[in-house]
């Protein structure tokens, strides 16, 4: 996913949907919460209506335009994909498993070619068969300019993808996607991509029958391949009603359960209203969940004091890091000693408190998230302890010629997001003051902030940043930030340090050839540790998601892929 709000190296719009709406990644629910199987009330049953209460609408519901991790949350009820995320609690949920395909893909030519075979008996909501040609067409329409917004990988990876304009303009289609028969599809890539099975979970790999494609209006009534079909989509996703797809078969889909008969999605609500309705649980709200609204510090304190409410809080961890970003092309951060001094001075205790406390944030010293699937390798090159190491910071500043201290500017957003917001900036300002560094705060409205920090020409010397994973692997985490070939000079750039090290670039290429995820993870962890020595960023904290769910909600599953409750597992009866 990427930076959260989930923006990619090319897309910097309202990204919260990737992780918070579409579903990010997580650990299991806290011990007092529901567990898979329905908890004390017995096994989950079919029936009833699930209500989803959200802040942001499920916009751009077209599978070509969705930018979701693992197929998303609400989207994956309607769209099946070649592969999908394993619908299990905790670390087991970071695994990729087959969905429409019989396996996670067969690689050849050093992972430049990926072949998939479809399962038997796959049908759309109208009973017609799903074919490999439908998946090819679904991928190709994601290249159409009028359906932009999805993840950009295919344009980069597929042979011919960089110039292809989609099936509306180029009827021939992409030669790099072959369908030798109705159940076989082959993808030809420009370079090795061992993580291809993880990307094949995205909705761009959902089948779309060409005869039913209505272009930009397709989202209003997409043809379902999943357990639910869309019967209403109004206000650009603000209100959606899903009902059972009677032609979906659990025999071909071992990941989704489809317990509720009906799902009602209601968006445009404030966080306070959502959490109040979930806690009170009146009427339909007793069987309600949220896929995009956390409990804040004050709400969490209130909930913790109520045993019944505390038992209805799901806890999740998504692969996500909040950090300080340097621009080493400008003084004083062109000097590694100054960057290291800042790293030593950081007081992570005060920063965690500013982010909502230890229940909502965990201190970070590695750029990679602290999960095995990413290749997490514990290290702390500039140990600051809990409160910061001001003495070591002063020593380095003196060596760098700043024995009388230093004055710098920290750019942040004015949005109240507990990540790049004034509270975090103020905590950093106070910590650096102890080391003799005077920090001037530059607060920008969120859109101005995003534009400035991701522009090579306008990029500040020091700013607050964050990055979230498109899937639970080190590749989509490290490459956009540290691969020199991904520096974007005329668009949204995420390699703020402008690192272009041939050894780093070569190692990224070598790891991308590895199709054994555990083996690749170990290499990503080692690379993270090696890059960290340069102090190009200062990791600050990883967020923790705390979300309330209704009193009649059962079978709560929260994986380390999404970090949030998986609606495909929920039962309400």
TrEMBL record:
Residues 1-26 form the signal peptide. It comes from the Bacteria. Residues 95-485 form the Solute-binding protein family domain. Transmembrane segments: none annotated. InterPro entries: Peptide/Ni-bd (IPR030678), SBP_5 (IPR039424), SBP_5_dom (IPR000914). Keywords: Signal. Residues 30-49, 89-108 are annotated as: Disordered. Gene3D superfamilies: Dipeptide-binding Protein, Domain 3 (3.10.105.10), Periplasmic binding protein-like II (3.40.190.10). PANTHER family: ABC TRANSPORTER SUBSTRATE-BINDING PROTEIN, PERIPLASMIC BINDING COMPONENT OF ABC TRANSPORTER. This is ABC transporter substrate-binding protein.
């Amino acid at each position: 996913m990427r930076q959260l709000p989930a923006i990619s190296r090319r897309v910097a719009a309202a990204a919260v949907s990737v992780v918070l709406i579409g579903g990010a990644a997580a650990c299991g629910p806290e011990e007092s919460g529901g567990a898979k199987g329905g908890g004390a009330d017995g096994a989950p049953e079919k029936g009833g209506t699930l209500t989803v209460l959200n802040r942001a609408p499920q916009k751009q519901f077209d599978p070509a335009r969705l930018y979701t991790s693992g197929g998303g949350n609400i989207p994956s009820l309607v769209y099946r994909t070649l592969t999908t995320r394993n619908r299990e609690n905790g670390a087991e949920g970071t695994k990729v498993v087959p969905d429409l395909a019989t396996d996670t893909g067969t690689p050849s030519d050093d992972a430049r070619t990926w072949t998939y075979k479809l399962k038997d008996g796959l049908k759309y909501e109208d009973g017609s068969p799903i074919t490999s040609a439908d998946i090819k067409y679904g991928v190709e329409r994601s290249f159409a300019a009028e359906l932009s917004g999805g993840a950009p990988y295919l344009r980069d990876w597929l042979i011919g993808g960089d110039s292809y304009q989609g099936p509306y303009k180029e009827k021939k289609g992409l030669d790099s996607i072959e369908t030798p028969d109705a159940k076989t599809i082959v993808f030809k890539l420009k370079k090795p991509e061992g993580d291809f099975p993880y990307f094949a979970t995205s909705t761009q790999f959902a089948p779309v029958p060409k005869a039913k494609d209505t272009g930009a209006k397709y989202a209003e009534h997409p043809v379902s391949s999943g357990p639910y079909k869309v019967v209403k989509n109004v206000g650009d996703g603000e209100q959606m009603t899903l009902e059972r797809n009677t032609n979906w078969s659990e025999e071909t889909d071992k990941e989704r359960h489809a317990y509720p008969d009906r799902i009602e999605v209601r968006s445009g609500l404030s966080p306070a209203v959502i959490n109040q309705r979930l806690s009170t649980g009146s009427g339909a709200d007793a069987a309600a969940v949220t896929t995009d609204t956390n409990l804040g510090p004050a709400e969490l304190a209130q909930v913790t004091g109520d045993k019944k409410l505390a038992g209805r809080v799901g806890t999740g961890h998504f692969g996500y890091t909040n950090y300080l970003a340097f621009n080493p092309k400008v003084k004083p951060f062109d000097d590694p000693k100054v960057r290291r001094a800042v790293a030593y001075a950081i007081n992570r205790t005060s920063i965690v408190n500013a982010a909502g406390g230890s229940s909502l944030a965990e201190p970070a010293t590695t750029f990679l998230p602290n999960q095995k699937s990413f290749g997490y390798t514990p290290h702390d090159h500039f140990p600051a302890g809990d409160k910061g190491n001001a003495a070591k910071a002063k020593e380095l500043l003196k060596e760098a010629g700043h024995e009388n201290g230093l004055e710098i500017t920290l750019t942040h957003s004015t949005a109240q997001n507990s990540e790049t917001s004034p509270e975090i900036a103020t905590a950093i300002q106070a910590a650096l003051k102890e080391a003799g560094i005077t920090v001037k705060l530059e607060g920008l409205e969120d859109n101005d902030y995003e534009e400035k920090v991701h522009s090579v020409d306008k990029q500040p010397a020091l700013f607050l940043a964050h990055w979230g994973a498109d899937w639970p692997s080190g590749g989509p985490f490290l490459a956009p930030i540290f691969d020199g070939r991904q520096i974007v000079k005329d668009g949204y750039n995420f390699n703020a340090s402008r690192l272009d090290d041939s050894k780093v670039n070569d190692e990224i290429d070598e790891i991308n050839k590895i199709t054994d995820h555990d083996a690749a993870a170990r290499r990503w962890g080692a690379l993270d540790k090696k890059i960290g020595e340069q102090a190009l960023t200062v990791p600050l904290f990883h967020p923790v998601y705390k979300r309330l769910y209704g009193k009649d909600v059962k079978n709560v599953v929260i994986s380390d892929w999404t970090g949030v409750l998986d609606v495909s597992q929920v039962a309400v009866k």
